[in-house]
Amino acid sequence: MSPQMIDRLIAAFFDTVLMVSASAGIAVLAGIPLAVFLVTSGPGGFFPAPRLNRVLGAIVNGFRAVPFIVLLVALIPLTRLITGTTIGVWAAVVPLSISATPFFARIAEVSLREVDPGLVEAAQSIGASRWNIVRHVLLPEALPGIIGGFTITVVSMIGASAMAGAVGAGGLGDVAIRYGYQRFDTTVMVAVIVILVALVSLVQGAGDTVVRRLRAR
Amino acid sequence: MTGAAVIPLPQAGAQAASAAQAHRIAGSVQFQGLGKTYTSSAGEVQALQDIDLEIQPGEIFGIIGRSGAGKSSLLRSINRLEQPTEGRVLVDGEDIAGLGEAGLIRLRRRIGMIFQHFNLLSAKTVRENVALPLRIAGVQQAEAAARVAEVLRLVGLEGKEDTYPSRLSGGQKQRVGIARALVMRPEILLCDEATSALDPETTLSILRLLRDINRRLGLTVVLITHEMSVIREICHRVVVLERGRVAEMGPVWQVFTRPQHAATQALLAPLTRALPEDLSARLHDRAEPGDLQVIELPFAGEAAPDLAVLAPGLRLVQAQVDPIQGHAVGRLVVLAPQGFDPATLSAKARRLGHVAAND
Question: How does B329-355 read in b/e, with b if 16+ C-beta sit within 10 Å?
Fold first, then answer.
């Protein structure tokens, strides 16, 4: 591999990391409140809003049903509105985070639902407000599951970011398609695959370690 | 609300504690025509009907019944974890049905609660679990730390502050639960099957702790259980629920000695020891020559039995007498020669039958 190609790979690696971390950050900031709302606003929840709950649930399902490559193209007008462009790292962050948020919210929702209702009752009995229950009971008790779900979300986002490369977002996927596939450069293809495997292993390993530490308490 | 201020520190001594008890007036609960109807897919279920009860400040009040009798609904209506559909609940004379969210939170801070499965937060240490009520009530850190240390000493958990609940035994977990319930210095403590998940020895130690807390702090304890032995151990008064209604109610020794309702008798059955197997197998109605009489001498609420009634020639084969609130409850079973008149033992003594004197 030429030195230029190595530089190109390094730059692409950081583009991917930037795309994924920015989108993952947005997915956490939006996904956790969404998950809390989905859990607490349903029937029997303590912020009852059944109609809004159904509407949001339907929207989440809708986004989850659309394949990422389709969403990527369908969201182009919105992307242009927000970032002013449709190419580059930041243009990829818009569809990536919009696709990851409902995915992550559903996983976090499952963990929040698994919190023992007895703990919520105990918190009510000590005079906790509903907000206190979310903050001191639901979120801390569901944390191991939420972090496990976040790990899965990040790994699937690394895969999705390669697709974003196909529409000009840059990153490792872009290099693999343009050099590895279109110019038949097998070395570049193999290098990209090795880097992606290493990146995914790193993320999964880190997530697993944190979850194991939390569960060991 | 004088309740919160008068609780002495544990080391303050018995004198201060009894003074606190004498001054304590808060901690009463009244149920007036209470009813609860659930609507399920199978139709309407009446969990509670026409409950009229009054729980006195400072007493240990037991609610017993078989599963599904409505115990849990009744207990949870005191801090409104359960919303009754009819009637009223008064805490210290105040109808709690009208409380808004802020009022309800203030009420719940006056009422501690402990649970069968402890319900401790697994992500928090013992200290953090116990401190949580203070933290959300906005109590200052220095004072909160002192109060957490005080209640942990009271329940005997010094040295476990930084342990997570998963590392504790069942009895220790319940002690954390009790500490968490007491840290707001409540006037009422609700116990929801608090010993049902514990082994007999731990059950006894937790019950002793509850009785100790009731005496020292003078707070009202309301507990539900399906075990009569728990009632016998610590309660002053008991109500027996059956199908959502009051079957009977009264001082514990009275309910134990003169159970009126079939439900009470069924609940008492496990505590009454049957005749020894070898004796009951040989028991027959008609006296044969050389047989001995089997005589039962029951005690139901008298002073402790005077053994002088046992005449020479009588043989004691079984004895079970427990003091309940100062009343002897139980029975003696004796063997007597033919011709002995059971009435000389006591008016209540009766002949169960005869056995051959072959041992």
Answer: bbbbbbbbeeebebeebbeebeebbbb
Q: Return the H-helix or E-strand segment holding B354.
A: strand B350-356
Positive or negative: CA dihedral A93, A95, A96, A102: positive
Q: Nearest 5°: CA angle at A135, between A130 and A138?
A: 85
CB contact under 8 A, B121 and A136: yes
Contacts of A124 in chain B (CB under 8 A): 81, 108
User: CA gyration radius for chain A?
Assistant: 20
Q: A107-128 burial string, b = 16+ CB within 10 Å, else e?
A: bbbebbeebeeebbbbbbbbbb
Instruction: Count chain A–chain B contacts defined by CB atoms under 8 A.
Output: 68
Mean pLDDT of chain B: 88
> Which of A121, A127, A141 has the CB atom closest to B121's CB atom?
A141
ipTM score of complex? 0.87
pLDDT (tens digit per residue) in A111-168 = 999 999 999 999 999 999 999 999 999 999 999 999 999 999 999 999 999 888 767 7
Distance CA B123, CA B144 (A): 20
Which CATH number among 2.40.30.10, 1.10.3720.10, 3.10.129.10, 3.30.1330.10 corresponds to the domain A3-215? 1.10.3720.10
Sequence-distant (6+) residues with CB within 8 A of B154 are B10, B179, B182, B213
